[in-house]
Amino acid sequence: MDENTSAFSPLWLFTGFWFFIGCVLPWLLPASDNRYLFQTMLVTTSVCCYIFWLGPFLMQMNPIVGPILRNTSYFIVAEQWGIESVARS
């Protein structure tokens, strides 16, 4: 499996899941007095949950900011992890 394909697999999976909940399921509800209310609830819930999931997912795929380490922090981490290729200056 290609790296790009595996990275986008959760995107397609969850997009399909929330599409089903928000677009297909409301049409399958039985007729009742509150059918339109339930349809509105399903669509609103699916849109909000999808956006709530999509934001962090996309931020993980291409992070804008990474951790900023000072030299002292870097040397402490290297010493604790046992990295010997780091030379102190």
Automatic annotation (TrEMBL):
The chain crosses the membrane at residues 12-29, 36-53. InterPro entries: ATPase_V0-cplx_e1/e2_su (IPR008389). The keyword Endoplasmic reticulum does not apply. Pfam families: ATP_synt_H. It is found in: Endomembrane system. GO terms for cellular component: endomembrane system; plasma membrane proton-transporting V-type ATPase complex; proton-transporting V-type ATPase, V0 domain. Keywords: Hydrogen ion transport, Ion transport, Membrane, Transmembrane, Transmembrane helix, Transport. It is a multi-pass membrane protein. GO terms for molecular function: proton-transporting ATPase activity, rotational mechanism. Belongs to the V-ATPase e1/e2 subunit family. This is V-type proton ATPase subunit e 1-like.
